[in-house]
Design brief:
Two copies of one chain form a homodimer. The first copy, chain A, has 14 helices and twelve strands. The first copy, chain A, is an alpha/beta fold and about 350 residues long. Chain A is elongated, with a radius of gyration of 26 Å. Chain A binds a DNA duplex (30 and 30 nucleotides) through helix 2 and helix 4.
Chain lengths: ~350, ~350
DNA sequence: AATGACGCTGTGAGCGTTCACAGTAGAGAA
DNA sequence: TTCTCTACTGTGAACGCTCACAGCGTCATT
């Protein structure tokens, strides 16, 4: 005997909490209590309600709930990168996938917002205030005022990577960029390299400055001189890597290793080196950063530093939900791992 | 003189339609009418309300609205690919970006849902029914029952690529795969190639079968024999391309061209050919499909078929919104374009 | 036996909108 | 003038839920 009434044309009105209450022989209040943890509900009532929910196929109307609770039970994933990077950089996919999954486990949908243009930025900001419980922010450039704005508006917020110049007020989760760079440079040194250059990330991004700092500190640690000619800032793109390597080769033809701030740039570096007739890793060792799919796509496959994206996304969600729950902002730094392949 | 009251600690209660009404000296009803198109509102009232909205910083509470209208004014982007592909394939990013932007123009947020596992699939289905106005579906494998389920549940739906075996009931937007394959094979033929092999996409995806059909038809058109040994199905991955090329070289060492069903696979094909000592395009021409970033990353750069992703995403959104608005399902096929680079 | 505490339950109010309806005023037609 | 029509406006009701409160038994304590 089917309780769910048939439905010839189109969708029918979905069951409400009233329907469940009637079906279970209890009141709305009791059903609501079951829905929200089941405290102060007798075992008998609990059973009756649960089975009524199953029979009716009831799902809560989140709009009605949000209307009264003031929460929206949804979270925005806000991306303020220039769009070329989003298209090119596989790290975003991994991060996005991870956050979606972590949120799904809490039954919280992820609203994707991309702010390439100024108009989009404004629209997103307007939407976020009041329609979303919190924001996962991905925007590496420190010039971006969005973190400050959101923080000021009192919106719970977790950034991916330490936002430069925001003081210590906003939560973030980041890989240990400095440590990762150190591991790579140590490794290059240990394998006999003595003229180690670097192509850094943009110096207005935390990854750019931190990895460069790690490079510099490790050079000192190894007793190698710091030579400005060996440092070229890139832009995290493949083409940027190609250009940086050309410059490097011109300035210092005698280099025997390059630590590159991202795998994508490292791919570009490899291209330039190949064109210049340098063998990798024979003549020059190349170390990347990220361990993205690009590392495996490169020839030779890249020795690189793995960013723990799965843990990063999981932590971002954990910290954000904690903050929505009233806890204080937190900073989380996760260890990286050196991945040895063929390029160094 | 600031009307927005100050707010020392945390967020304050946002202004409601009542506040606006009072501020403008009209009733809720009038404000509501202004919010919904401004019909049947006098110019004076319109002005008063608009300026009141500006002064109070009012934004509508979408939950309250949704509660009564029954609409949610949001759309799900549902991805049911195995996750490796999502991580590797840059096409998704372009599509996602395009859909987000197109929806944003209508002030409709995009809920990202990824169904890698069965549990995720169920959760997403439960969420979608009742919480979302429509679905943009990206799942190329026809075995996937999700399109049928959604369609049956009466959820407005647009697929990316023709869903195999769904009859003609569900809307879709696709590139002209057949035409694109035809252009590529014609081009290879025109440049003197006579033993043209192909690495197709998976044969349970529309792209796989359509492009293969185009290849086959054009061979016939050119008077070339169809040789089963020259056809190897791939899996859209780079590694799959490598394997397919090995098989091809083994079966038919005399081939002088390969039409590959995706750029990513073409990258793999190039790797294998290079290892085997074949020169591209000297010995063997290679044609890709997609014109993704991978085409530019390949060496030599890929001659390929451009999928008009920006138009695809825009059309998907247009068709979906039309369908939500009550129109009938529609199929849209968009032209592709041959992009000549270095590999053929 | 009376009191308090506690666990469970039902009820009314209200969240911020939209919608249908009724009412008003002004313009044009008879 | 009177009537009708139209354009505009305000008012209750409702959407489906949670929350605070009050009621009611039951048990332990005084």
């Amino acid at each position: 005997m089917s309780r769910t009434e048939h439905n010839g044309t189109g969708r029918r009105r979905p069951p409400t909490i009233h329907d469940v209450a009637r079906e279970a022989g209890v009141s709305r209040g009791t059903v609501s209590r079951v829905l929200n943890g089941g405290h102060h509900v007798s075992p008998a009532a609990l059973d009756a309600v649960r089975s009524a929910i199953r029979r009716t196929g009831y799902t809560v109307n989140r709009h009605a709930r949000s209307l009264i609770t003031g929460r929206s039970d949804s979270v925005a994933f806000l991306l303020t990168e220039p769009q070329e990077r989003f298209f090119e950089d596989p790290n975003f996919n991994v991060l996005l996938r991870g956050c979606t999954a972590a949120l799904a486990a809490h039954d919280i949908p992820l609203l994707l917002m991309i702010a390439g243009t100024e108009a989009e930025r404004r629209r997103n900001m307007r939407y976020i205030a009041g329609h979303v419980d919190g924001v996962l922010l991905v925007s590496s450039h420190s010039g971006d005022p969005v973190a400050a704005q959101l923080h000021e508006a009192g919106v719970p917020l977790v950034a991916c990577g330490k936002p430069l110049g925001q003081g210590s007020k906003v939560s973030y989760v980041a890989a240990d960029d400095l440590g990762g760079a150190r591991d790579m440079v140590r490794y290059l040194y240990a394998s006999g390299r003595r003229r180690i250059a670097t192509v850094s990330g943009p110096l207005d991004t935390p990854g750019g400055v931190e990895r460069l700092a790690g490079y510099r500190a490790t050079l000192a640690e190894c007793g190698l001189p710091y030579d400005e000619a060996l440092v070229v800032p890139g832009d995290y793109s493949r083409a940027g890597g190609e250009a940086a390597a050309s410059l490097l080769l011109e300035r210092a033809p005698d280099i025997d290793a390059v630590f590159v701030g991202s795998d994508l740039m490292a791919q570009g570096v490899l291209t330039t080196l190949e064109r210049a007739g340098r063998r990798v890793p024979g003549d020059i060792a190349v170390g990347g950063f990220d361990d993205s799919p690009a590392a495996l796509a490169a020839r030779p496959e890249l020795t690189t530093v793995r960013q723990p994206w799965d843990r990063i996304s999981a932590e971002m969600v954990r910290v954000l939900l904690a903050q929505i729950g009233g806890e204080d902002p937190a900073a989380v730094i996760l260890p990286t791992e050196l991945v040895r392949r063929d390029s160094a």
